[in-house]
């Protein structure tokens, strides 16, 4: 018999329920409120009370209201039809809801129940299968969507029946499986899975090593991320976090994109909904929305729903990873998620950590980031979830708890600089303060040496060293004045500026410069580093500035030209002529 209870206390979205039976941690329940059922989740259990967080506004709720417990956790509905959808954090289809504002208790089915899908079997009668095995597939937009043995199934099964090629609805039985006890289990195209439990239907999850090309030079050429890797983008307001994520969505080497708009301002979320259907996908020539799913919770929605949205997004990403796809998951912003955790923790009067965040915040963030990764599936295929989140530290303080906790979990750190944003040097990633720990992984070094260039990692470290030396020279020039330092200080600074203007900065509005293939990045990096190794001769410091500005201008024209085109080669030849003007030719001693 299902457990029931009565509301005995209300603290905003935290409701205390006196229960008449057993309840479980993270169990879902419904509060009866004036004929409307409000969805909630158990977050703490006492001797006779359950503390629940309500996913709706609790305005008007009174003590004594009845509560019904369901016996299951918050679950995502997984099946064909998730792509191109706009969901809230509980996976309700926002496009099916009426009116501008969400109504209490207005829940919608995330999938199209009556739509017919063209099913093609991949398994045959007599095959041995297990949880996550592919039984068949349907075409979702243009992506092959695998119909799998439900993740909740344990043990081995034998395919007893499987449907032939044809059109079926998502809840139609498409296969019958038989377990070792001879019991039959019907399987449809839909399954449900608790969002706070990782999907582990894979054979192996090694340390990721495969370079993920993003087309963004400051990432690929200086702080690379891998397929199945993790990264985060902290930065103050106005430094371009959302714009950078949009560039990653369009250009990164991924089969599918999941966007978790977690607690962003309502106007920003509306912009995503309005702009995304219009965006062209440069990778496929179709619309970007065709391979995108958006999970949206604005900052003025209940904190509990905001906390659920990141888990729903990750579960959907893991589901598609089990199909052998490369998934890019972007969360904007995980700070709002952490603030939701803080609010509920404070309402339960738990012992606070730094800045009143929960004491276990680092563990919560680490466990979530650990769900990303590169996996080998049971059938030998591979899949991945690459997770990049943004953090919005108050006042740009990168020492605050959320940023510090995320630093311990994420392998890539892309620090956005207010100074770079103010001087219009976009993307505003500070290449010196940022880092990629994948540059220390032997398997990654081996991979890029084979696929990109034998000296690729050495070139990255060399470029970073030039940027650091350039920054030091700039500080000395600022303190002592232009004529107070040797000429070579100016030369060192301007060589670092070449890397900044040519490699780090990118024009998102230019068709060619917006995305740079890795082959072109390698070519330009080698050309810039060769120039940095060149010794120049100047009579005074006043010659240095205009000379290097000419070099930078030609380099930028090369960036705007088709790679290896006549125009590109013309600027390359012009660059060589400029370099010869001041370059010192070293004569070898015999």
TrEMBL record:
A GO MF term: proton-transporting ATPase activity, rotational mechanism
Taxonomic superkingdom: Bacteria
Any coiled-coil regions, as ranges: none
Pfam family, one: ATP-synt_ab_Xtn
Name of this chain's protein: V-type ATP synthase alpha chain
E.C. designation(s): 7.1.2.2
CDD domains associated with the record: ATP-synt_F1_V1_A1_AB_FliI_N, V_A-ATPase_A
Keywords: ATP-binding, Ion transport, Nucleotide-binding, Translocase, Transport
Reactions the enzyme catalyzes: ATP + H2O + 4 H(+)(in) = ADP + phosphate + 5 H(+)(out)
């Amino acid at each position: 018999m299902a457990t029931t209870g009565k509301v005995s206390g209300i603290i905003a979205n935290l409701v205390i329920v006196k229960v008449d039976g057993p309840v479980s941690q993270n169990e879902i329940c419904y509060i009866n409120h004036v004929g409307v059922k409000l969805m909630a989740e158990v977050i703490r259990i006492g001797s006779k009370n359950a503390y629940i967080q309500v996913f709706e506004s609790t305005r008007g709720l009174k003590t004594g209201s009845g509560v019904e417990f369901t016996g299951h956790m918050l679950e995502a509905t997984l099946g064909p039809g998730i792509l191109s959808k706009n969901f809230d954090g509980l996976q309700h289809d926002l496009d099916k809801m009426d009116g501008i504002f969400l109504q209490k208790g207005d829940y919608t089915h995330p999938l199209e129940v009556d739509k017919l899908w063209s099913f093609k079997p991949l398994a045959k009668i007599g095959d041995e299968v297990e949880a996550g095995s592919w039984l068949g597939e349907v075409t979702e937009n243009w992506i092959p969507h695998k119909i799998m043995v439900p993740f909740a199934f344990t043990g081995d099964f034998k395919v007893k029946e499987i449907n032939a090629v044809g059109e079926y609805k998502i809840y139609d039985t498409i296969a019958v499986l038989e377990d070792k006890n001879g019991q039959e289990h019907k399987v449809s195209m839909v399954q449900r899975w608790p969002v706070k439990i990782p999907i582990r239907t894979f054979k192996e999850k090694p340390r990721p090593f495969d370079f993920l090309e993003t087309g963004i030079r400051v990432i690929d050429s200086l702080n690379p991320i891998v397929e199945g890797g993790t990264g985060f983008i902290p930065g103050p307001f106005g430094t371009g976090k959302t714009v950078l994520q949009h560039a990653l969505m369009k250009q990164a080497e991924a089969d599918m994109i999941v966007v978790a708009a977690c607690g962003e301002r309502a106007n920003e979320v509306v912009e995503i909904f309005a702009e995304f259907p219009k965006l062209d996908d440069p990778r496929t020539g179709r619309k970007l929305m065709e391979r995108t799913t958006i999970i949206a919770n604005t900052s003025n929605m209940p904190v509990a729903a905001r906390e659920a949205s990141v888990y729903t997004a990750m579960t959907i990403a893991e589901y598609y990873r089990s199909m052998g796809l490369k998934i890019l998951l972007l969360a904007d912003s995980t700070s709002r998620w952490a603030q939701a955790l803080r609010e509920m923790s404070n309402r339960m009067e738990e012992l606070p950590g730094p800045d009143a965040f929960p004491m276990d915040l680092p563990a919560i963030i680490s466990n979530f980031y650990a769900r990303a990764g590169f996996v080998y599936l049971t059938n030998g295929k591979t899949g991945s979830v690459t997770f990049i989140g943004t953090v919005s530290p108050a006042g740009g303080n990168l020492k605050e708890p959320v940023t510090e906790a995320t630093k311990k979990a994420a392998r890539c750190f892309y620090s956005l600089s207010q100074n770079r944003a103010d001087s219009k040097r976009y993307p505003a990633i500070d290449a010196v303060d940022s880092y990629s720990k994948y540059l220390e992984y032997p398997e990654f070094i081996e991979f890029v040496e084979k696929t990109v260039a034998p000296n690729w990692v050495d070139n990255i470290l060399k470029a970073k060293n030039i940027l650091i030396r350039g920054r030091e020279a700039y500080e000395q020039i600022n303190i002592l004045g232009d004529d107070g330092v040797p000429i070579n200080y100016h030369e060192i600074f301007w060589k670092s500026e070449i890397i900044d203007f040519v490699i780090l900065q990118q024009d998102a509005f230019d068709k060619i410069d917006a995305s740079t293939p890795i082959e072109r990045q390698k070519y330009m990096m080698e050309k810039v580093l060769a120039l940095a190794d060149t010794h120049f001769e100047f009579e005074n410091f006043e010659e240095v500035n205009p000379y290097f500005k000419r070099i930078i201008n030609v380099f930028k024209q090369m960036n705007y030209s088709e790679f290896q085109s006549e125009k590109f080669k013309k600027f390359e030849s012009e660059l060589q002529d400029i370099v010869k003007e001041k370059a010192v030719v070293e004569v070898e001693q015999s």
